[in-house]
């Protein structure tokens, strides 16, 4: 199949439609506006519905309603808008409904900036909404990966009956790369007999709900959710290992930042310094087992993020004390430069060989 | 033996948790009866609020969806956009609709979402123990207006029906009361019209139902009915504010 040169935001929309997404509820916010705009043009052509809601809060609640009927539904936003959605995301997770949420993240906190950042790692992996729930979080580094992961996201969401997040950043949303829309890998999915499609007077009512005033029942609900997340941790981890052989330091980086890290690795290699990369593709579940593949030559880890260091905790948990964990990052929409990453690595390992 | 009255098929057999004298019981029955009589129970999907009627999903005999506080019209929008041939309704109190959820109900009406909203107005937050609501009357005491609501501090009570009637998409807007048997019968007719507006695809319909809350008003059920008549009705007049010609 031929590759098409597309803008990230639009490619995400096209991938969703290809995956059978028929309902999109969104709201304008930079830098993801091209996604709802694309959906407003393309959804009607594909027998779907696009609706611009009055707020991100309303949009996620529309997603909640549509998801309850069993439909494949999506919303997108950027960091401050995703903050608004947290209530709805918690309800969707609590009610065990599938949906896909795209976050094209920008600088924060608060209104922040409109340039790319990775400062929503905590928001994505540590809840954001209330209660014991997790999101399956995909972090693509290229537009091809973004397109593939959006399609996977709908399958995973239906399989786990859980919201799935695709976390890009302003660069993923705005840049153009060639993408190919392959047939998504289908999972074996049970029928959605829990959906609110009307009883037809042939069955008892289906109730979509996350409330339980009975503590024992609510505990059971939470245990059910935990079992799903345990299954995700067992089966859904994705990561890339790069240049690990004889590495003396391993960088950990995801999304577009990882591509800059690879440039730095190439530059270091020219100077005879071997540095590896662990690139998480799922942020939750975090690729703990990737750290078991680190060779004995490695003396330390370096987290490289477009944030003040939100992934450090997960790296330390995965390391379990085996290596010191350092950090290099830029914030506010500043993009890390390969030279600066090279300098940081040299600072840690003590100069060129 | 002739059956002269029985529970409508629109309600389940679950006993209500509502307080003695609470008008939710009556209003639930009216909605259930209307859905049954219109023959749409099998394709009805209701959205329950947060408030005393949070457990409405256990009482209506149709598919139900529990919404976050105030968000029912947005949830209903999601449902109706996926299932346009189904009958989608929200059932909300005044804390839910007139406070936290005002944006959602206005915008659902503004878009002309073909849903029906049953708005139960008892001028107070019931479930959480009697706090002031945007619909609480001037001078009315509540747990967060212990000296009585004051205009200079909290503004005048919000007239939802009057406000909704200014929105083009809100094609059916009427305020009713369930304080007397006559008013209850009228309320049922109005609720039926509101659902017919949805069935005919005309647009958004809202029925505001003046209701009592004996527990949080600190009165007996009969005293509450009198308080509603003497205090709420003058400020919240009953009547139709908007109706499409076809349903008149």
Could you explain the architecture of this structure?
The complex is a heterodimer of chains A (353) and B (248). Chain A has 353 residues and is of the alpha/beta class. Chain A is built from eleven helices and 15 strands. Chain A has helices spanning 8-18, 34-45, 56-68, 79-94, 121-125, 143-160, 170-174, 215-235, 255-270, 312-319, 338-349; strands at residues 4-7, 23-26, 49-52, 73-77, 99-105, 136-138, 163-169, 176-179, 207-208, 239-242, 249-252, 275-280, 282-284, 300-305, 325-329. In chain A, the strands form three sheets. Chain A has a seven-stranded mixed sheet with strand order 3-2-4-5-7-6-13, sandwiched between helices. In chain A, strands 10-12-11-14-15 form a five-stranded mixed sheet, sandwiched between helices. Chain A is globular, with a radius of gyration of 21 Å. The mean pLDDT of chain A is 97. Chain B has 248 residues and is of the alpha/beta class. Chain B is built from ten helices and seven strands. Chain B has helices at 24-37, 56-59, 72-82, 94-100, 102-110, 151-154, 160-164, 181-199, 214-217, 221-235; strands at 44-48, 63-66, 87-93, 116-121, 170-177, 204-210, 239-242. Chain B has a seven-stranded mixed sheet, with helices on both faces. In chain B, helix 1 crosses helix 8 and helix 3 runs parallel beside helix 5. The longest helix of chain B has 19 residues, at 181-199. Classes of the chains: A alpha/beta (353), B alpha/beta (248). The A-B interface holds A 22-23, 25, 49, 51, 53-55, 57-59, 61-69, 71, 73, 87-88, 91, 95, 196-202, 205-211 and B 12, 41-45, 47, 54, 57-58, 60-68, 71, 74-79, 81-83, 86, 103-104, 107, 111. Strand 9 (207-208) of chain A pairs parallel with strand 2 of chain B.
């Amino acid at each position: 199949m031929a590759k098409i040169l597309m803008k990230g935001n639009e490619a995400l929309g096209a991938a969703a439609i290809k995956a059978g997404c028929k309902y999109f509820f969104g709201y304008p916010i930079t830098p993801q506006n091209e996604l709802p705009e694309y959906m407003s043009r393309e959804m009607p052509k594909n027998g779907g519905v696009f609706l611009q809601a009055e707020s991100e809060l309303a949009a996620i609640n529309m997603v909640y309603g549509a998801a309850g009927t069993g439909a494949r539904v999506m919303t997108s936003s950027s960091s401050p808008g995703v903050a608004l959605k947290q209530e709805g995301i918690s309800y969707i997770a609590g009610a065990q409904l599938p949906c896909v949420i795209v976050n094209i993240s920008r600088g924060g906190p608060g209104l922040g900036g409109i340039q790319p950042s990775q400062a929503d790692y905590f928001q994505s992996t540590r809840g954001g909404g209330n209660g014991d729930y997790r999101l399956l979080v995909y972090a693509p580094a290229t537009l091809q990966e973004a397109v593939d992961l959006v399609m996977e996201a709908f399958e995973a969401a239906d399989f786990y009956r859980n919201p799935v997040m695709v976390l890009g950043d302003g660069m993923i949303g705005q840049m153009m790369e060639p993408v190919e829309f392959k047939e998504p890998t289908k999972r074996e999915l049970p029928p959605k007999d829990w959906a609110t499609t009307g009883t037809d007077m042939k069955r008892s009512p289906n109730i979509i709900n996350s409330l339980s005033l009975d503590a024992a029942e609510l505990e059971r609900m939470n245990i059910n959710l935990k079992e799903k997340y345990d299954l995700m941790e067992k089966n859904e981890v994705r990561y890339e290992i790069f240049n690990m052989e004889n590495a003396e330091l391993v960088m950990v980086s995801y999304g577009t930042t990882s591509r800059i890290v690879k440039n730095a690795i190439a530059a270091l290699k020219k100077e005879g310094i071997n540095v590896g990369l662990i690139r998480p593709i799922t942020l939750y579940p975090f690729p703990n087992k990737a750290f078991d593949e680190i060779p004995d030559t490695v003396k330390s880890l370096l987290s490289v993020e477009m944030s003040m260091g939100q992934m450090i905790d997960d790296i330390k948990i995965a390391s379990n004390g085996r290596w010191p964990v350092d950090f290099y990052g830029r914030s506010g929409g500043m993009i890390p430069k390969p030279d600066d990453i090279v300098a940081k690595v040299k600072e840690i390992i003590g100069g060129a060989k | 033996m002739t059956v002269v009255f029985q529970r409508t098929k629109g309600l389940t057999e679950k006993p209500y948790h509502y307080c003695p004298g609470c008008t939710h019981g009556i209003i639930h029955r009216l909605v259930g009866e209307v859905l049954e009589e219109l023959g749409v129970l099998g394709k009805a999907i209701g959205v329950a609020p947060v408030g005393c009627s949070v457990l409405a999903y256990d009482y209506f005999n149709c598919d139900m969806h529990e919404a976050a506080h105030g968000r029912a019209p947005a949830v209903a929008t999601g449902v109706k956009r996926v299932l346009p041939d189904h009958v989608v309704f929200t059932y909300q109190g005044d804390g839910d609709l007139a406070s936290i959820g005002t944006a959602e109900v206005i915008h659902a009406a503004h878009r002309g979402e073909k849903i029906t909203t049953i708005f139960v107005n008892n001028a107070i937050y019931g479930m959480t123990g009697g706090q002031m609501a945007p619909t609480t009357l001037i001078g009315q005491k509540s747990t967060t207006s212990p000296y009585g609501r004051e205009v200079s501090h909290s503004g005048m009570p919000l007239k939802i029906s009057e406000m909704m009637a200014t929105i083009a998409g809100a094609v059916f807007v009427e305020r009713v009361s369930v304080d007397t048997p006559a008013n209850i019968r009228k309320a049922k007719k109005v609720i039926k019209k509101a659902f017919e507006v949805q069935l005919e695809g005309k647009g958004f319909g809202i029925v505001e139902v003046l209701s009592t809350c004996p527990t949080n008003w600190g009165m007996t059920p009969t005293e509450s009915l009198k308080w509603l008549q003497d205090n709420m009705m003058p400020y919240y007049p009953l009547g139709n504010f908007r109706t499409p010609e076809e349903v008149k």
